[in-house]
Design goal:
alpha/beta; 21% strand; single chain; 3-stranded parallel sheet
């Protein structure tokens, strides 16, 4: 898919993953297909981790739910 985009004249191609469940061989395949940047959340340790999940999880645990009612 990314090689098709590159051939069609697309600019730099990035991949964003929630969990980096791929190995070096998979990353090499993506790079060979034209992917320039790979970023992922830090829920699974990987060198592509760039998005910290802890602040998002903490906010979800501390913010009141929308359907909470105060009487």
């Amino acid at each position: 898919c990314s090689s098709d985009l590159t051939q069609a004249g697309a600019g730099p191609i990035s991949v964003c993953a929630t969990h980096a469940l791929f190995d070096d061989d998979d990353e090499a395949i993506m790079r060979a297909a034209g992917v320039e940047r790979i970023i992922s959340c830090d829920g699974v340790a990987h060198r592509s981790n760039a998005i910290p999940l802890a602040p998002l999880i903490a906010a979800g645990l501390t913010e009141p739910k929308r359907d909470d009612h105060v009487d």
